[in-house]
Amino acid sequence: MLFSYQWLKTYVPSIPEPNILKEELTRRSVEVESIADAYPLMRDIIVAEVRAVDRHPDADRLVVCNVYDGKNEIQVVCGGSNVRAGMRVALAPVGATVQWHGEGEPIVLEKAKIRGLESFGMICSTSEIGLAGIFPPHEREVFDLSGTQAAPGAPLAQALNMHDYIVDIDNKSMTHRPDLFSHRGLAREIAAVFNLEMHLAEVEDTIGNVPAMHSVVEDAEACRRYRLIELEVTVAQAPEIVRNRLQLCGIKSINNVVDITNYILLEYGQPVHAFDAEKVSGDMIVRRARTGEKIETLDHETHELTPDVLVIADTEKPRAIAGIIGGVDSAITESTKRVYLEVAHFDAVVTRKASQHVGVRTDGVLRWEKGPSEELPTYSAPATVELLKQYADAKVLRAIDVYPKKRVQQSVEVAQSAIARLVGISIPLEESAQMLTRLGCVVVTKKDGFTVTPPWFRMDLNIQEDVIEEVVRMYGIHRIPEQYLRGELRVAVVDPEVALQRRVREQLALMKYSELYSYSFYGDVQLKRYDIASEPHVEILNPLSDDLKYLRVSLLPNMLNTVVRNSVHEGVLNCFEIGHVYFADREVRQLAIVTTGSNAFRRLRGIVEQLLTTLTVPYHSSVVNQSLGQSSLCPFWQWYEGAQALEYRSGTEILGTIGELAAPVASRIKMKYECAFATLSIPQMVHDEAITKTIRIPSEFPALPLDLSLVVPESVAWGEVERVARVHGGVLLQNIELKDIYTGAPLEKGTKSFLFRLEFQAQDHTLAMNEMEEWRDQFVAECSKKFGAILRDNA
Amino acid sequence: MKLKLNNESLAQLQKEIDDALVGARTTEDVDAVRVQYLGRKNGVLTEALKSLKDLGLEEKKVFGPLLNDLKNRIEEQLTRAEHALDVDQSAARDLTLPGIVPETGHLHPMTLVQHELMDIFRSMGFMIVEGPELDQEFYNFESLNIPKTHPARDIQDTFFIKTPITRKEKRDLPKTGWVMRTHTSNMQVRIMEEYGAPLRCVVPARVFRNESTDASHEHTFYQFECFVVDEKINIGNLLWTIQEIFRQLYKKDVKVRLRPGYFPFTEPSFEPDMSCVFCDGVGCRVCKYTGWVEMGGSGMIHPNVFKAAGFPEGKYTGFAFGMGMSRLAMLKYGLPDVRLFMDSDLRILKQF
Hints:
Radius of gyration of chain B: 34 Å
Mean pLDDT of chain B: 89
Largest sheet of chain A: 7 strands, mixed
Helix content of chain A: 25-40%
Distance between the termini of chain B: 58 Å
Low-confidence stretches of chain B: none
Oligomer: heterodimer
CATH class of the largest domain in chain B: Alpha Beta
Largest interface: A-B, 102 and 95 residues
CATH topology of the largest domain in chain A: BirA Bifunctional Protein, domain 2
Strand order of the largest sheet of chain A: 27-30-31-35-34-33-32
CATH superfamily of the largest domain in chain A: Bira Bifunctional Protein, Domain 2
Structural class of chain B: alpha+beta
Number of strands of chain B: 10
């Protein structure tokens, strides 16, 4: 919200300098965004006297003036229709900053040639120096200062006696302080913070001394107070001071009645509405709108209403959306003679919801949604009437104040020990009491604390902690010293999944995999691309877009999209992501790993197994083939090439799976490379993680390699051969390494050979040749029995 | 010299060659070793390989691979030794040649910041949890003194869930709806219920806001929130903790100032500002020439939050401090756009 520094100063005469005000207020009260010159465009402008005016020889609408700037006579070419000799004008000399016709970026004036004649400055209209709101310009007329006494050469600001700063305060920083959304409120706060004298006399409330009028409040919760005053008025232009202050605070001037309601808004924080009494029929009624009722508001928008919206209606129809905006039919116009002035209190939630419903946000809504005091009209109504009397020849005819439940401020008990406990230092009771008194509280000191009754305008002091906050900020938060945390030395619990996640990330990075993050959401496009049903998905009620309406049930769809996007510049890549996947009945952390490029599956298998080994998660793997009717919990068979996955289990539970990306999916997502992916369950890994690890002590005896080439039918999987070797190999077999798979001549068709190396080693002796031979013979015999394998002589 | 074929002799041979190469000073020395062992005529190893053909099939199978392995190994060794001497003698050494950069994996910058924070908090005795991202409105709002009518619960800020959620929860709250958590504060009451007091906890995690994205807004971003509960936790403790975290994070004597603020779940509430670590308070773009950088929100835990957790009235005090981890990462790495985090462009990620 914008405040006028000079206006505040009328209440707090010794208000600090702007820079101190900004600093201290920000530290103790609200966040001051800036305090800036209110009339930046007046800065370079001086008063000048027009000494002579001649027609421009080459332009009908221009004149050439001789202008006295207090020192010299200079030539200025001017287009103003009202320029005449002897006139005092606002002169922008060369080098001054002005705004052409009040629009666009300000520019710096230079010496110019206008239609062949030199011009050493500009005679300004009010719009060029930012004063159009206060002194509305007539078309093509320059600002006539003849009425002022100022001598040529004097700064314009001085001549007009207009010096001010605009204090801009961040609304968010006072969202809990409805009282501060007004000049009087902020002035009170400033006086309290700086401990200064203030002049805030209230206008005596004499409105009641007139005949009563009739008004009905149907919803007394939504409208806790309804003050209506009927007045005779004369509509005209508002006085300069009102127009000036409105403009400074960013409100457009309309006429005296409307301007005064807005002035009260700025002064008291009280939204006031005036109806043209001639345009409404019967009593004013505060009620819920009926479904389907319509109103055209001041902004010429027509709104269809529902009972969610509170309206002010007459016997005919809604005349205003309560607290938000008036109807256009009953607006104040130049011909208005009689007004109903509404100074009410509307409920914060009702007003906010209604504002959202009709899509209108006004200065009124801004105040109501903060929840000001029901007592406010007690002070703001007489002040409004007083201004109308002064500036609109107002005469009060009738009035009513529907206020069945008068607000009473509840007092709060505060223990001295509670202050010390929460703040960490002891603040003398007397000092605390004084600070609270400065804020307007009534403080009754007791032996071990005090009873605090907040002033009528403070709605936010309801519990002890609220009061302590006031003490703290008035005392100065910067005076509180830091204090070590003290307490039992406990070993901190780390969520085991969070801990494991970290090890996973670090291990994968070591193995040259890079981490991606992707969104938790996707939409129907993704479902289609990845051929997944919408069924298992949790859906968002109000997604940002259709592409973000489902919660992911797997990391892969979004992640694979990212992989494809990155492939454009990276080529093949290795990456992983850890994140949550969501279901109606659970939420699980998942690890997904993706690799692209040749040999993707075998490389990824190596990564997964190395990872599990490092994490000490015991595992065994098996091929699951959906087309053979082998079931698995995995619901996404359509992603696995050949409907085959390698499944990892620890015990009976599934740790995860690896597969190759199915061709149809790859083509839909434009994946150009061979691609393999794995998904693993973080909680399952945590569950199965072993505390101990078995280390193989290197034997002191030499290891013997044995290279074998085994010819088997093509249908035999390596894993089967390997299993025989391992079962058969016992403790002596240290390692099996598959070196080559060969098909083609001279092998028979339908067969292939595995070339592999076995490594044997005993812990307690040097292996003898015959031990190895014996082993090999048995192994080959077993293989030939099982798969019809033949040993190929590779000697 | 004829080599007897057994494991010991092969090991012995390897050792001999190792010794010979250690003594080699010139390429001629290396050549001599090569001739002695791998020479086409009388090389010890060459001879041994030749003799393989005289062995029985069984022995061949065993010693064939052994000898071949040894030969390959020795050849590589000799080449290396030769190369080393070669380079040594030449004047062609050029240390300005570029390094051959190894391929490495990369952790996401948010992960790096998260790990750093976890280390700091752990050293200060804070427990670390992440919690659910899809949570009950009760934990995200009501328990934090944010009633149904509060502006923070307006539909435009929160992702509400349409699908009925059937999760089993410890606390029976049949009427509550579900939302994507809008802040990490959703863990305050959950943790208090689970662990009781005293408590030191930090929650570094993913949160969601229903708002359109631009350079400084994302619907998916990261926050961390720490809170401490004990019988005598005070504002001084809050100040020390925030200050200490930033001191550890920026490895500088950072100052923190608390300004009055407002949050429903703390009372009093404070907005912490950190003295700008980028210009040491002189004024720069990061601190908008104020010398101070806004760092999230904080305050003393509101009594209604303790009440929601079922703690006895007045028994405990506590503080909470939270801020955007995304913001922290942006400050730390000078990233201009919050969307970079979720965009996952490897050209950027690989710089971490």
